[in-house]
Amino acid sequence: MVSLNFIFQTIILMILADNIHTKSNSLGFLRSLLASIVVVHHAFRLRSNEPYFWEDFFPLSFGTLGVYGFFVISGYLITASFEHSSSTVNFVWRRLLRIFPAFWICLLLTIFLFAPLTHYFTYGSLENYFTGFASPPLSYFYKNIFLSINQIDINNIMQKNVGAGNMLGAVFNGSLWTLIHEFRLYIITALIGIVAFYKTKKYYVFYIIYFLYVVVHYADPVEGRLFFKLYTDKATIILPIYFFAGSTLYLLRNKIKINYILLSLAILITIIAHYTGLFYYIFPFSLTYILIWLAVKLPFKDWERKYGDYSYGIYIYHFVIQQSLLVAGFTYLNTISFFLLSFCIALFFAYLSWKLIEKPSLKLKNKFS
Length: 369
Known about the structure:
66% of the residues lie in helices and 0% in strands.
Protein backbone atom coordinates (compact mmCIF):
# COMPACT_ATOMS: atom_id res chain seq x y z
CA MET A 1 0.00 0.00 0.00
CA VAL A 2 1.35 3.42 -0.97
CA SER A 3 2.13 5.49 2.15
CA LEU A 4 1.08 9.09 2.62
CA ASN A 5 4.74 9.96 3.12
CA PHE A 6 5.53 8.63 -0.38
CA ILE A 7 2.60 10.55 -1.93
CA PHE A 8 3.60 13.89 -0.40
CA GLN A 9 7.24 13.44 -1.35
CA THR A 10 6.27 12.47 -4.90
CA ILE A 11 4.12 15.61 -5.30
CA ILE A 12 6.95 17.88 -4.18
CA LEU A 13 9.63 15.99 -6.13
CA MET A 14 7.66 16.45 -9.34
CA ILE A 15 8.71 20.09 -9.00
CA LEU A 16 12.09 19.84 -7.30
CA ALA A 17 13.60 16.43 -8.19
CA ASP A 18 16.77 14.57 -7.08
CA ASN A 19 19.49 15.23 -4.51
CA ILE A 20 21.63 17.73 -2.65
CA HIS A 21 25.02 16.04 -2.62
CA THR A 22 26.69 18.14 0.05
CA LYS A 23 26.73 18.64 3.79
CA SER A 24 28.83 21.78 3.75
CA ASN A 25 26.94 24.97 2.89
CA SER A 26 27.00 28.75 2.94
CA LEU A 27 23.95 29.28 5.14
CA GLY A 28 26.02 31.16 7.71
CA PHE A 29 27.17 33.62 5.07
CA LEU A 30 23.62 34.04 3.77
CA ARG A 31 22.34 34.82 7.26
CA SER A 32 24.95 37.56 7.61
CA LEU A 33 24.08 38.88 4.16
CA LEU A 34 20.36 38.98 4.97
CA ALA A 35 21.07 40.80 8.23
CA SER A 36 23.12 43.34 6.29
CA ILE A 37 20.38 44.09 3.77
CA VAL A 38 17.98 44.71 6.67
CA VAL A 39 20.49 47.30 7.91
CA VAL A 40 20.44 48.88 4.44
CA HIS A 41 16.65 49.01 4.49
CA HIS A 42 16.44 50.69 7.88
CA ALA A 43 19.21 53.13 6.95
CA PHE A 44 17.04 54.38 4.09
CA ARG A 45 13.80 54.34 6.02
CA LEU A 46 15.19 56.07 9.10
CA ARG A 47 17.46 58.51 7.32
CA SER A 48 14.93 59.62 4.73
CA ASN A 49 11.87 58.52 2.86
CA GLU A 50 13.55 58.55 -0.53
CA PRO A 51 12.74 55.48 -2.64
CA TYR A 52 15.60 53.39 -3.94
CA PHE A 53 15.78 51.66 -7.30
CA TRP A 54 15.17 48.16 -5.89
CA GLU A 55 11.50 48.80 -5.21
CA ASP A 56 10.93 50.13 -8.73
CA PHE A 57 11.00 46.58 -10.12
CA PHE A 58 10.68 44.27 -7.10
CA PRO A 59 7.58 44.21 -4.87
CA LEU A 60 9.42 43.68 -1.57
CA SER A 61 11.65 46.07 0.32
CA PHE A 62 15.14 45.05 1.37
CA GLY A 63 13.95 44.68 4.94
CA THR A 64 11.03 42.42 4.06
CA LEU A 65 13.21 40.28 1.81
CA GLY A 66 15.76 39.96 4.62
CA VAL A 67 13.13 38.89 7.15
CA TYR A 68 11.57 36.35 4.78
CA GLY A 69 15.01 34.95 4.00
CA PHE A 70 15.77 34.66 7.72
CA PHE A 71 12.59 32.66 8.27
CA VAL A 72 13.37 30.29 5.39
CA ILE A 73 16.87 29.57 6.70
CA SER A 74 15.57 29.31 10.27
CA GLY A 75 13.03 26.73 9.15
CA TYR A 76 15.79 24.70 7.54
CA LEU A 77 18.21 24.94 10.47
CA ILE A 78 15.66 24.60 13.27
CA THR A 79 14.22 21.44 11.77
CA ALA A 80 17.75 20.07 11.51
CA SER A 81 18.36 21.06 15.13
CA PHE A 82 15.24 19.26 16.28
CA GLU A 83 16.11 16.10 14.37
CA HIS A 84 19.59 16.03 15.90
CA SER A 85 18.56 16.95 19.45
CA SER A 86 18.60 14.12 21.96
CA SER A 87 15.17 15.10 23.31
CA THR A 88 12.50 17.77 23.03
CA VAL A 89 13.78 19.30 26.27
CA ASN A 90 17.28 19.46 24.81
CA PHE A 91 15.92 21.11 21.65
CA VAL A 92 13.98 23.77 23.59
CA TRP A 93 17.01 24.39 25.82
CA ARG A 94 19.21 24.97 22.76
CA ARG A 95 16.71 27.42 21.32
CA LEU A 96 16.51 29.29 24.62
CA LEU A 97 20.30 29.58 24.77
CA ARG A 98 20.51 30.80 21.21
CA ILE A 99 17.98 33.60 21.41
CA PHE A 100 17.45 34.81 24.99
CA PRO A 101 20.88 35.63 26.54
CA ALA A 102 21.96 37.92 23.68
CA PHE A 103 18.48 39.45 23.55
CA TRP A 104 18.50 40.25 27.28
CA ILE A 105 21.96 41.83 27.02
CA CYS A 106 20.71 43.92 24.11
CA LEU A 107 17.84 45.19 26.26
CA LEU A 108 20.22 46.00 29.11
CA LEU A 109 22.66 47.83 26.84
CA THR A 110 19.74 49.80 25.46
CA ILE A 111 18.74 50.80 29.00
CA PHE A 112 22.22 51.60 30.31
CA LEU A 113 24.05 52.80 27.18
CA PHE A 114 21.96 53.81 24.18
CA ALA A 115 18.99 55.27 26.04
CA PRO A 116 21.07 57.43 28.43
CA LEU A 117 22.99 58.88 25.47
CA THR A 118 19.82 59.66 23.54
CA HIS A 119 18.14 60.96 26.69
CA TYR A 120 21.01 63.38 27.20
CA PHE A 121 20.87 64.64 23.61
CA THR A 122 17.08 64.98 23.81
CA TYR A 123 16.64 66.61 27.23
CA GLY A 124 20.07 68.11 27.87
CA SER A 125 20.84 66.09 31.01
CA LEU A 126 20.31 62.72 32.68
CA GLU A 127 18.06 64.19 35.34
CA ASN A 128 14.96 62.06 35.99
CA TYR A 129 16.25 59.41 33.58
CA PHE A 130 15.01 56.49 35.68
CA THR A 131 11.85 57.95 37.20
CA GLY A 132 10.64 61.00 35.33
CA PHE A 133 8.56 59.49 32.51
CA ALA A 134 5.66 57.16 31.86
CA SER A 135 7.85 54.75 29.85
CA PRO A 136 10.85 54.34 32.20
CA PRO A 137 14.03 52.38 31.35
CA LEU A 138 13.59 49.49 33.79
CA SER A 139 10.11 48.66 32.55
CA TYR A 140 11.59 48.44 29.04
CA PHE A 141 13.40 45.35 30.27
CA TYR A 142 10.74 43.50 32.23
CA LYS A 143 7.92 44.31 29.79
CA ASN A 144 9.96 43.00 26.84
CA ILE A 145 11.84 40.21 28.61
CA PHE A 146 9.94 37.37 26.90
CA LEU A 147 10.51 38.66 23.33
CA SER A 148 7.08 40.23 22.91
CA ILE A 149 7.78 43.96 22.62
CA ASN A 150 5.21 45.58 24.89
CA GLN A 151 7.15 48.83 25.45
CA ILE A 152 8.61 50.40 22.31
CA ASP A 153 10.11 53.62 23.70
CA ILE A 154 12.08 54.84 26.72
CA ASN A 155 11.25 58.19 28.33
CA ASN A 156 9.41 59.23 25.15
CA ILE A 157 12.80 59.82 23.51
CA MET A 158 11.92 58.50 20.08
CA GLN A 159 8.45 60.00 20.17
CA LYS A 160 10.04 63.38 20.79
CA ASN A 161 12.54 62.86 17.95
CA VAL A 162 10.18 61.56 15.27
CA GLY A 163 10.84 64.70 13.27
CA ALA A 164 14.58 64.02 13.09
CA GLY A 165 14.28 61.95 9.94
CA ASN A 166 12.69 59.01 11.76
CA MET A 167 10.18 57.55 9.29
CA LEU A 168 9.37 54.44 11.34
CA GLY A 169 7.82 56.23 14.28
CA ALA A 170 8.64 56.27 17.96
CA VAL A 171 10.29 52.83 18.18
CA PHE A 172 13.59 52.43 20.00
CA ASN A 173 14.46 49.11 18.39
CA GLY A 174 12.29 48.23 15.43
CA SER A 175 14.12 44.99 14.62
CA LEU A 176 13.01 43.03 17.67
CA TRP A 177 9.38 42.49 16.64
CA THR A 178 10.17 39.35 14.59
CA LEU A 179 11.83 37.45 17.45
CA ILE A 180 8.64 36.39 19.23
CA HIS A 181 7.17 35.09 15.97
CA GLU A 182 10.29 33.08 15.23
CA PHE A 183 10.43 31.61 18.71
CA ARG A 184 6.79 30.56 18.50
CA LEU A 185 7.67 28.66 15.35
CA TYR A 186 10.44 26.89 17.26
CA ILE A 187 7.83 25.66 19.72
CA ILE A 188 5.42 24.68 16.94
CA THR A 189 8.24 22.73 15.28
CA ALA A 190 8.82 20.86 18.54
CA LEU A 191 5.12 20.04 18.92
CA ILE A 192 4.87 18.77 15.35
CA GLY A 193 8.16 16.96 15.67
CA ILE A 194 7.06 15.00 18.72
CA VAL A 195 4.56 13.25 16.45
CA ALA A 196 6.38 13.39 13.12
CA PHE A 197 10.00 12.61 14.00
CA TYR A 198 10.40 10.27 16.93
CA LYS A 199 10.62 6.53 16.35
CA THR A 200 8.39 6.23 13.31
CA LYS A 201 9.74 9.33 11.50
CA LYS A 202 6.42 9.72 9.69
CA TYR A 203 7.19 13.06 8.07
CA TYR A 204 3.84 13.08 6.31
CA VAL A 205 2.31 14.39 9.56
CA PHE A 206 4.48 17.46 9.12
CA TYR A 207 3.54 17.78 5.44
CA ILE A 208 -0.18 17.49 6.18
CA ILE A 209 -0.11 20.27 8.79
CA TYR A 210 1.96 22.52 6.55
CA PHE A 211 -0.21 21.80 3.50
CA LEU A 212 -3.42 22.56 5.41
CA TYR A 213 -1.99 25.82 6.74
CA VAL A 214 -0.96 26.93 3.26
CA VAL A 215 -4.40 26.13 1.85
CA VAL A 216 -6.26 27.88 4.68
CA HIS A 217 -3.98 30.90 4.53
CA TYR A 218 -4.13 31.41 0.79
CA ALA A 219 -7.89 30.91 0.81
CA ASP A 220 -8.12 33.92 3.13
CA PRO A 221 -4.78 35.64 3.91
CA VAL A 222 -6.25 37.87 6.61
CA GLU A 223 -8.67 35.62 8.47
CA GLY A 224 -7.23 32.19 7.65
CA ARG A 225 -5.73 31.46 11.06
CA LEU A 226 -6.92 27.94 11.71
CA PHE A 227 -3.56 26.62 12.93
CA PHE A 228 -1.55 29.65 14.01
CA LYS A 229 -3.82 32.00 15.90
CA LEU A 230 -0.82 33.84 17.31
CA TYR A 231 -0.19 35.26 13.83
CA THR A 232 -2.93 37.82 13.78
CA ASP A 233 -2.24 40.28 11.01
CA LYS A 234 -1.18 40.26 7.39
CA ALA A 235 2.41 41.21 8.23
CA THR A 236 2.97 38.11 10.34
CA ILE A 237 0.57 35.47 9.05
CA ILE A 238 2.80 34.79 6.02
CA LEU A 239 5.89 34.13 8.16
CA PRO A 240 5.06 30.48 9.01
CA ILE A 241 4.87 29.68 5.29
CA TYR A 242 8.44 30.91 4.71
CA PHE A 243 9.62 29.10 7.86
CA PHE A 244 8.01 25.79 7.01
CA ALA A 245 9.02 26.01 3.37
CA GLY A 246 12.58 25.90 4.70
CA SER A 247 11.63 23.05 7.04
CA THR A 248 10.09 21.01 4.25
CA LEU A 249 13.11 21.53 2.06
CA TYR A 250 15.32 20.25 4.88
CA LEU A 251 13.22 17.09 5.17
CA LEU A 252 13.65 16.55 1.43
CA ARG A 253 17.28 17.67 1.28
CA ASN A 254 18.53 14.32 -0.01
CA LYS A 255 16.03 14.30 -2.84
CA ILE A 256 16.40 17.83 -4.20
CA LYS A 257 18.58 18.53 -7.19
CA ILE A 258 20.57 21.75 -7.14
CA ASN A 259 21.31 22.92 -10.67
CA TYR A 260 21.11 25.96 -12.92
CA ILE A 261 18.00 24.71 -14.73
CA LEU A 262 15.88 24.66 -11.58
CA LEU A 263 17.41 27.94 -10.42
CA SER A 264 16.45 29.56 -13.73
CA LEU A 265 12.99 28.08 -13.41
CA ALA A 266 12.59 29.47 -9.87
CA ILE A 267 13.66 32.93 -11.03
CA LEU A 268 11.40 32.79 -14.09
CA ILE A 269 8.41 31.70 -12.03
CA THR A 270 9.07 34.56 -9.60
CA ILE A 271 9.14 37.11 -12.44
CA ILE A 272 5.96 35.71 -14.00
CA ALA A 273 4.25 35.68 -10.60
CA HIS A 274 5.19 39.33 -10.08
CA TYR A 275 3.59 40.45 -13.34
CA THR A 276 0.52 38.24 -12.96
CA GLY A 277 -0.36 39.21 -9.40
CA LEU A 278 0.65 35.83 -7.94
CA PHE A 279 3.90 36.93 -6.32
CA TYR A 280 2.52 36.71 -2.76
CA TYR A 281 1.59 33.07 -3.32
CA ILE A 282 4.64 31.89 -5.24
CA PHE A 283 7.59 33.67 -3.67
CA PRO A 284 7.83 31.65 -0.41
CA PHE A 285 8.63 28.57 -2.47
CA SER A 286 10.83 30.09 -5.16
CA LEU A 287 12.81 32.06 -2.55
CA THR A 288 13.38 28.86 -0.56
CA TYR A 289 14.89 27.08 -3.54
CA ILE A 290 17.00 30.10 -4.52
CA LEU A 291 18.43 30.42 -1.01
CA ILE A 292 19.27 26.73 -0.74
CA TRP A 293 20.81 26.83 -4.22
CA LEU A 294 23.00 29.72 -3.06
CA ALA A 295 23.84 27.88 0.16
CA VAL A 296 25.15 24.94 -1.87
CA LYS A 297 26.85 26.82 -4.71
CA LEU A 298 28.44 29.85 -3.03
CA PRO A 299 32.08 29.38 -1.98
CA PHE A 300 31.55 30.41 1.65
CA LYS A 301 31.47 27.00 3.31
CA ASP A 302 31.84 26.72 7.09
CA TRP A 303 31.46 30.50 7.43
CA GLU A 304 30.40 30.34 11.07
CA ARG A 305 33.20 27.97 12.06
CA LYS A 306 35.83 30.20 10.45
CA TYR A 307 34.54 33.65 11.36
CA GLY A 308 31.72 33.29 13.89
CA ASP A 309 28.01 34.03 13.58
CA TYR A 310 27.43 37.77 13.78
CA SER A 311 24.07 37.79 11.99
CA TYR A 312 21.94 37.76 15.14
CA GLY A 313 23.97 40.53 16.76
CA ILE A 314 23.84 42.70 13.64
CA TYR A 315 20.10 42.21 13.46
CA ILE A 316 19.24 43.05 17.09
CA TYR A 317 21.66 45.98 17.48
CA HIS A 318 21.65 47.90 14.21
CA PHE A 319 18.26 49.62 14.61
CA VAL A 320 18.87 51.01 18.09
CA ILE A 321 22.29 52.18 16.92
CA GLN A 322 20.77 53.96 13.92
CA GLN A 323 18.16 55.61 16.12
CA SER A 324 20.86 56.74 18.56
CA LEU A 325 22.94 58.21 15.74
CA LEU A 326 19.96 60.20 14.47
CA VAL A 327 19.16 61.60 17.90
CA ALA A 328 22.85 62.42 18.42
CA GLY A 329 22.79 64.66 15.34
CA PHE A 330 24.16 62.51 12.55
CA THR A 331 21.31 63.52 10.26
CA TYR A 332 23.81 65.46 8.10
CA LEU A 333 25.19 62.17 6.72
CA ASN A 334 23.94 60.96 3.37
CA THR A 335 22.18 57.60 3.36
CA ILE A 336 25.17 55.52 2.25
CA SER A 337 27.48 57.06 4.85
CA PHE A 338 24.80 56.61 7.50
CA PHE A 339 24.46 52.94 6.57
CA LEU A 340 28.22 52.32 6.64
CA LEU A 341 28.67 54.01 10.00
CA SER A 342 25.74 52.22 11.64
CA PHE A 343 26.76 48.88 10.13
CA CYS A 344 30.33 49.15 11.42
CA ILE A 345 29.13 49.98 14.93
CA ALA A 346 26.54 47.18 14.81
CA LEU A 347 29.21 44.74 13.63
CA PHE A 348 31.37 45.72 16.61
CA PHE A 349 28.53 45.00 19.04
CA ALA A 350 27.68 41.81 17.15
CA TYR A 351 31.30 40.67 17.51
CA LEU A 352 31.20 41.28 21.26
CA SER A 353 27.81 39.60 21.52
CA TRP A 354 29.07 36.48 19.74
CA LYS A 355 32.35 36.24 21.64
CA LEU A 356 31.09 37.13 25.10
CA ILE A 357 27.45 36.01 25.15
CA GLU A 358 26.26 33.78 22.32
CA LYS A 359 29.21 31.43 21.88
CA PRO A 360 29.74 30.85 25.64
CA SER A 361 25.99 30.25 26.05
CA LEU A 362 26.02 27.59 23.34
CA LYS A 363 28.64 25.63 25.26
CA LEU A 364 25.82 24.75 27.66
CA LYS A 365 23.64 23.29 24.89
CA ASN A 366 24.06 19.67 26.01
CA LYS A 367 23.28 20.31 29.67
CA PHE A 368 19.87 18.63 29.27
CA SER A 369 20.94 15.96 26.78
